[in-house]
Amino acid sequence: MDSASGPMELGRLGRNVVIKRASAALTALICLFCASTSFADQPRPWQMDLQAAASPIMHQIRWFEHYSLWFVVPVTLLVLALLIVVGVKFRASVHPVASRTSHNTTIEILWTIGPVLVLFFLAIPSFNLLNAQLQLPDADITVKATATQWQWNYEYEGGATPVAFDSYMLKDQDRAGAGKADLARYPRLLAVDNEMVLPVGKTVRMLVTAAPTDVIHAFAMPAFGVKIDAVPGRLNETWFKADTEGMYYGQCSELCGKDHSFMPIAIRIVSEEKYTAWLAQAANDLPGANKALMAATDRPADNLAVAANVSN
Ligand SMILES: [Cu+2]
What we know:
- By secondary structure, the chain is of the alpha+beta class.
- It has helices at 2-37, 56-89, 105-134, 175-178, 272-282, 286-297, 304-307; strands at 141-148, 151-156, 163-167, 196-199, 204-210, 217-221, 226-230, 236-240, 246-251, 264-270.
- A hairpin with a 2-residue loop joins strand 1 and strand 2 (151-156).
- The protein starts with a helix and ends in a 5-residue tail after the last helix.
- The site of copper (II) ion has 6 residues, from loops.
């Protein structure tokens, strides 16, 4: 008895350590996800899922994705199961003489009606989503994005003083000078020198084009569910309404030449007051306006985990 209780005790201790380590790892993982929400969304290493939704359209896209999986997964499993059953049950060694059945009315009816129903249930919400994406609501702000090999130009329409600027990918040697050394907030290959700044909760109309003698690019912002071609000589239109403040990253999404992967899109979503102040200052002094906005919105990197619990 005594000799048996030793190993059992050890086993229990071992199990406790494993459970403790697992719960610590889980907590760390949860903290990691919480910390990441404090600077909105961007692609991450080994990301398997879509970026977190930050606009009504993207919420709808996420919903539709989950909804369609309820059809995709069962159909895939059914086909896999049928393949296995048929492969095993009707293999040559068991069934030396092949069946000559050529018709079965019940099966014909079932496999016609089944797919029709599946397509019907997929098509209705899909068309609704497409409509919501393509029907522009009344816009509060209009910004024109013009793509050139290889940067973006943003032009704020309708203001008293025009605000327009180029947005280039941030080079590593310029990070310190720009005050953007924090790689978590300003990731490599995604951070830019001048972000597009927009207010939270406002409907933004994006006019998207490419410079007249340029090539086709595409304006994409995954967290807002936006992706639209930038075609020379043609003005495309899309919209979004960001529902959370923070920094969002996208990339040119149409292969456009050698620096295609070096023309990111960065949008900083801030409160309406901060946006108004930034816009007024940006008309005359863009670097000053950006610096003031960074000072007002960016928190020190070591506070990210703490800041995660405070909405920005
Ligand atoms: Cu491009």
